[in-house]
Amino acid sequence: MAAPEDGLEAWLRYAPLPAEIAKSYPRYLGIVALCESETSPVCTAGKELQDGLKKILGQQVDITNTLNGADELPASTILIGTLNAVPWAAVGKQVIPTLKEDGFWLSARNDGTAAVLIVGQNERGALYGTFEFLMLLAQNKPCPTSYASSPSAPIRWVNQWDNLDGTIERGYGGRSIFFNDGEVLKDLTRVAQYARLMASVRLNGIVVNNVNSHCNLLHPINLRGLGRIADTMRPWGVRIGVALYFDTPQELGGLPTSDPLDSEVVSYWNGVTVQLYQHVPDMLGYLIKANSEGQPGPLTYGRTLADGANMFAKALKPHGDGIVMYRAFVYNHHLDESDWKNDRANAAVEFFDGLDDVFEDNVLVQIKYGPIDFQVREPPSPLLAHQRRTPIILEFQVCQEYLGQQSHLAYLPPLWRTILDFDLRIDGKPSLVRDIASGNRFGWKRSGYAAVVNVGNDTTWLGSHLAMSNLYAYGRYCWDPSSNETSVVQDWTRLSFGGHPTIVNTITELSMESWSVYESYTGNLGIQTLCDIVKTCHYGPSPAAMDGNGWGQWTRADAHAIGMDRTVATGTGNAGQYPPEVATVFENPRTTPEDLLLWFHHVPYTYQLKSGKTVIQHFYDAHYEGAQRAQTFPARWKALRGLIDDKRFEHTAIRLSYQAGHSLIWRDSICTFYYAKCGIPDKHNRVGNHQWRVEAEDMVLSGYKIIPITPFESASKGKAIITDSNRTRGTAKCVVPFPPGKYNIAVNYYDHLGGKSRYQLFLGERLIGDWTGDLEECLLHDFSDLRDGHSATRITFNDIQVERGDVLMIVGTPDGTELAPVDYVSFLPEGIID
Ligand code: GCW
To answer: Which reaction does it catalyse (predicted)?
Structure first.
């Protein structure tokens, strides 16, 4: 039996290799870490290596920090150092290829000496090389005799959206590991552990606080705290930056304005910068979200975005290599939908028009991968084709905000691939997005990647063990954006769960399918993730919420047609923001890739796709197929029982079966909604036809009452039941209207905030199920305080024998504002999904 694991070590568990394999490795006699200080990443590397060798091979190996005058590398010794520190004699006759900043060279001597050389271009590189050595070892992969590796881009950073009060915007894995109660946490143990994880996948920077920043970040106590965070992460080669709140001069500094051209404001920020560098001498710089979603910014004072960015850039310049990461996420969120020319997707190019040449040379524009907002599918942001002189940082999300919030499985590299490999054909020349981000396309010295990461203080980091592959993969992709999605998840799986072929194959297959499955049951053909954007939780289905508001994530669905017309000819002109060759493709619905059809075109539901299906039939089919595939996930996961530890097995099993249930809620909501909208029935007669369900509202109720659900499509037949009050229990009964036999019995109910109702399910005298509505605790995030597509959920009891005349009874005990709401019960014979 595998010992229970809580996920804290993630992919750095260093599980022991089987004894006979461990024996086949050399017995290492010493680690030489050529470093001068305890805080040097080379010193960290030495200790990490010592720890890894002990855990993986059971070898206790001592560390020294010099070669003791020896020229040659002693046998069975592992030497770690930088290019400058490693003596040439130790390298011997080998030639170390040119390494880029942070690169490394790894060499396991095949001359019978069993010596290993790990040489970094810098200290960080030496640490990365050490992790590479350890991760090969942990997977029992041979260490190469000469292997050099350098990053695609110097900027490989993460952005935390952590608030000073300890909450995390879009956090689904617990509370902040950085802040609590307005201050930096005293105990930064988890921060060090996080830096270790980051370093192991070669991430070298982090902005620790939310882009929706607060002026109190710059309170003296927090300046000291930021210094402590930086000190904690530095031994791992991770530098920190901060996100600033634009109106700090007024709100904390007491100045009458925060106008970036005001001399007092300028000196205020200069002063702040001096102080920050006192605490964080190697600070990365400033991340700025301004004039975005209600945040103040230069435009508030009648200045340009460049005026704002340059003010910060000039403040940073005297202190080193600090940069301004100026976010391109600037748009009007009060956009008028009645004007068909309005388009949020146009905003970035419009707002940044003409600024490319006027930014200071330490300003970088940080651009989300798509023009809107981390949707399940988007084209690349057109702004990526407009930056020639000012370099960019390409922003991804490891956080699954619009991708199931870590309660649904979605392995993201296949999505990232659609962006990274997209050829924008700038000036008619090959212009892959990854070559733009790496700086190669336009010869930028500094550019790269940032990803929003929502690690929290839960031991799983992200609230889900399987979601961690995204964090691991993000690092791998920054280093090498042409990495293979499958082999990345295989490596991660071997490291995180072990190398048994069933483990590796199962997790790889589920992961590789997961994004496409999620896309199938959420939003197809480029219509975006059809979730609720008004209640801001961005989670469950609510297609109507996309329109009728100023946020601009519109679908423009009416009774006849759907999609945004972004053509130049008749629409918003967004297609024309791309270079001509790409614009031509997007301008025409016939040449637009079909998975982006509705992103660029407003077409009738009856528009015929290449498959011969209409758009509406494609919606129906994709949703049925996607949800059907999601049903297979929990069953396939079962193959891992006993092969991995029970703790992580169960934790994941719960999530996959929750997802299977929620995928049906997605399916039914979307199909019901569009059927109601256009009136075109499903060719296969599935939509609205639920033969195996007993609607709660059709049962005999006592202490329960019937209520309509809003939006209507979040309940089967639009209605559900709740108890009469929050003090009395309710019962709902009926004679099972299906023939005797074996069934899986599924109960659909709403588990929202405000209470933890108890449910009991009886069949005759038999208690079939007894559970509480505590998803918010179990899945670690708030869905909604309402009965809707976020809170709708399903629980299933398998293999229940039903006899003729059996009476089904649900007993609901309300709690707080949660009135034990029930939607329906499904009786599912083998192979039926309903
Ligand atoms: O996707 C949206 C999120 C906001 C976020 C914003 C941004 C931090 O819903 O929570 O704010 O993007 O990227 O600034």
So the answer is: an alpha-D-glucuronoside + H2O = D-glucuronate + an alcohol
- For the domain covering 155-496, report its CATH number: 3.20.20.80
Pairing label, strands 155-160, 448-453: parallel
Residue 765 among the catalytic residues: no
401, 513, 751, 815: the catalytic one is 401
Q: Which CATH number fits domain 543-564+602-678: 1.20.1600.10, 3.90.550.10, 2.170.120.12, 3.90.1330.10?
A: 3.90.1330.10
Range in 400-404, 532-536, 673-677, 751-755 with the lowest mean pLDDT: 532-536
Say yes or no: CB of residue 774 within 6 Å of ligand 1: no
**How confident is the model over 757-781, as a mean pLDDT?**
96
For the structural domain made of 693-828, what CATH number should be given? 2.60.120.260
- Mean pLDDT over residues 531-556, rounded? 94
Closest atom of ligand 1 to CA, residue 292: 14
The ligand 1 atom at the shortest distance from the C-alpha of residue 211 is 8
Ligand 1 neighbour 623 (Cβ under 6 A): no
Question: Which helix (DSSP H) or strand (DSSP E) does residue 53 occupy?
Answer: helix 41-57
Q: Helices H, strands E: what count in the chain?
A: 20, 29
Alpha helices in 522-645 (DSSP H): 580-587, 597-600, 615-637
Q: What is the pLDDT of residues 122-143, one digit of tens each?
A: 999 999 999 999 999 999 999 9
Residue 832 is given by DSSP the state: -
In contact, 210 and 454? CB cutoff 8 Å: no
What is the number of the ligand 1 atom nearest to the C-alpha of 161? 8
Does residue 480 have an active-site annotation?
no
pLDDT per position as a tens digit, 702-729: 999 999 999 999 999 999 999 999 999 9
Beta carbons of 58 and 28 less than 8 angstroms apart = no
